[in-house]
Design a protein that fits this description.
The protein folds into 3 domains: 325 residues, ABC transporter type 1, transmembrane domain (ABC transporter transmembrane region fold); 143 residues, P-loop containing nucleotide triphosphate hydrolases (Rossmann fold, 3-Layer(aba) Sandwich); 70 residues, P-loop containing nucleotide triphosphate hydrolases (Rossmann fold, 3-Layer(aba) Sandwich). It contains 20 helices and 10 strands. Strands 6-7-8-3-9-10 form a 6-stranded mixed β-sheet, sandwiched between helices. A 4-stranded antiparallel β-sheet has the order 2-1-4-5, with helices on one face. Helix 3 runs antiparallel to helix 4, helix 8 packs across helix 11 and helix 17 packs parallel to helix 18. It is elongated.
């Protein structure tokens, strides 16, 4: 769902009921929240009491009434003090509840994201998930802290003022409610329309500025292709659009000024005229008329504010629905916890009649009834052209996806029947594009075993040919790797990833060839580390550079999702088939 869709979500009974589910996170803090609501009622009621009592100060005249003026003034001072205290408590309690509620929502969404399958992520647009966790949760936070309280306050003010005004002068109250609130609401919607036009004009100016910057940055290309006249025409089209929108905006701003002067101010003048008429007929006192004007202004502001608050609540409803889309998504892990331990397997892998299509490309079969047997403790290299299904095979083995048909057996048992967390704890994965997390080298090596002893970490680094360069760094194992490991070279990142796998001590190893983009010296160190890592483990190697898999016990050539050839390096060369051709191409590219 696009962000614009979320921001314009209409409030309906279904959407409101669904969105109220997020308020379930507030349940542990219901009593502080109720206290905040009570303070909100008190502060709003105090405002009504102050505004409705001001007129009495005007009506009290003479020495006999002077004491009553002082008493009323002291009373109103006490009410203001009570209102100030209630407002402080309301703000504090709402903030206390909101901070804890939002933290609980953030944690729930983050945990849910961790539990979702890889297939779910591939259906999401780039940046959309981060937007939900940041912007949408912020919108929910605003609704809890600001808009909800403001909505309740405005409702209390509107109904409270109507009740007081009707009790004071039904005639003037009915006359006012037929004019001023309607004008206030129209003014809000008119003003919002004018603001949209202003924003459109700003966007068009920004677009013309973007074109200017683009042309200046690529001026040599523009001149090389004699495209000056094209860019000039494009810029003129944009500036003409700015003129059109600007003039349209000016017309509506002028009409808005006419509306305010003639209708809104006219409504106020008409109320003053009718109120003065009632005072002249002794149906209303001067003080009551003054209070009436004060309360009318208070109500008009609240009625106008309700429209804006409703708009903000619409955005919050859209935001909550987006978050609920995440919270309602189907998980692959029922709960986040340390994985169970399974008995160490022998490591015999068998792929039986395995077929698979990606969910978003169901008509295209990536793997077709593939059969493959990998003996325990052996290394099986998977080769083939791009799109043959090499990486897909590793994704299925890691259970990122479920096969369309067929099954994968580990020591004769379907891996789909094993606890997912426990099964994945048996796997070690070293990808081609290594992902290191912000933190120290020590933390990255110990990623799968955070409580690992320093001796174990150093042993893993030694096995991965990483100990020497780590110890030469000023801070050694405490060196910060930077965002995604940018403070380290490609070869260093690969060796850290191998050390991470060594420390995890997996039974099954999946290697997405990591040396294709490394220099010769780094490649040799990484290959030596990978050889150590593969010893005694069943290994599936996705091969890009064929010179690195000559010693594999089994080489499988995939073509169109099927096993086209299988054998050792020497036997496949003797066959002179697909593999032999790939080797010739590889040797030619490295010559």
């Amino acid at each position: 769902m696009a962000k614009s869709d979320r921001s314009s979500k209409r409030i309906s009974k279904v959407s409101l009921k669904r969105s109220l589910r997020l308020y379930g996170f507030m349940r542990p803090y219901k009593w502080p929240f109720i206290l905040g609501l009570a303070c909100l009622v008190v502060s709003s009621s105090a405002s009504l009491l102050v505004f409705s009592s001001l007129g009495k100060l005007i009506d009290f005249q003479g020495e006999a009434l002077g004491q009553r003026v002082n008493q009323l003034t002291l009373l109103l001072g006490g009410v203001l003090l009570l209102q100030a205290l209630a407002s402080f408590l309301r703000i504090y309690t709402f903030a206390w509840v909101t901070q804890r509620t939002i933290a609980a929502i953030r944690q729930a969404v983050f945990d849910k994201l961790l539990s979702l399958p890889v297939a779910w992520y591939q259906k999401q647009r780039s940046g959309e998930i981060s937007s939900r966790v940041t912007a949408d949760i912020s919108a929910v936070q605003d609704s809890l802290t600001t808009y909800l309280a403001e909505f309740i306050r405005q409702i209390i003010i509107v109904f409270g003022t109507v009740f007081i005004l009707m009790a004071s002068s039904p005639k003037l109250a009915l006359f006012m409610m037929g004019t001023l609130p309607v004008m206030a609401v129209l003014a809000v919607f008119f003003g919002r329309f004018v603001r949209k036009l202003s924003k459109k004009a700003q966007n068009e100016v920004a677009e013309s500025t973007h074109l200017l910057e683009e042309v200046l940055q690529g001026i040599s290309t523009v001149k090389a292709f004699t495209a000056e006249w094209i860019q000039s025409a494009r810029y003129k089209k944009l500036t003409d659009a700015v003129i059109h929108t600007g003039m349209r905006n000016a017309v509506y701003r002028g009409l808005f000024a006419v509306f305010i002067i003639l209708f809104l101010f006219g409504a106020i003048i008409s109320i003053v005229w009718y109120g003065s008429h009632l005072v002249a007929q002794n149906e209303l006192s001067h003080g009551d008329l003054f209070s009436f004007f004060m309360l009318s202004g208070l109500m008009a502001g609240s009625v106008g504010g309700l429209a804006d608050t409703y708009s903000q609540m619409q955005k919050a409803i859209g935001a909550t629905e987006s978050l609920l889309d995440i919270l309602d998504a189907r998980v692959e892990l029922s709960e986040l916890k340390a994985p169970q331990s399974l008995p160490k397997p022998k490591g015999h892998l068998r792929f039986e009649q395995l077929s698979f299509s990606y969910p978003n490309r169901s008509e295209q079969q990536v793997l077709q009834e593939l059969n493959l047997d990998i003996p325990a403790g052996s290394t099986c290299a998977i080769v083939g052209s791009s799109g043959a299904g090499k990486s897909t095979l590793s994704y299925l083995l890691m259970r990122f996806y479920q096969p369309s048909s067929g099954r994968i057996l580990l020591d004769g048992q379907d891996i789909a029947d094993l606890d997912l967390g426990a099964y994945r704890s048996l796997l070690g994965y070293v990808p081609q594009d290594v992902m290191l997390f912000s933190g120290s080298i020590r933390e990255n090596i110990a990623y799968a075993r955070p409580q690992a002893a320093q001796d174990d970490i150093e042993y893993a680094a030694e096995m991965a040919n990483a100990a020497q360069f780590i110890e030469e760094l000023p801070q050694g194992y405490n060196t910060q790797v930077g965002d995604r490991g940018t403070q380290l070279s490609g070869g260093q990142r690969q060796r850290i990833a191998i050390a991470r796998a060594v420390l995890a001590n997996p039974s099954l190893l999946i290697l997405d060839e990591a040396t294709s983009s490394l220099d010769t010296a780094s490649e040799k160190l990484v290959q030596e580390a990978l050889e150590r890592l593969r010893k005694g483990r069943t290994s599936l190697v996705i091969a890009h550079r064929l010179s690195t898999i000559r010693n594999a016990q089994q080489i499988v050539v995939l073509q169109n999702g099927k096993v086209a050839e299988t054998g050792t390096h020497e036997s496949l060369l003797q066959q002179g088939g697909i593999y032999a051709g790939l080797v010739r191409l590889d040797e030619g590219s490295n010559a």
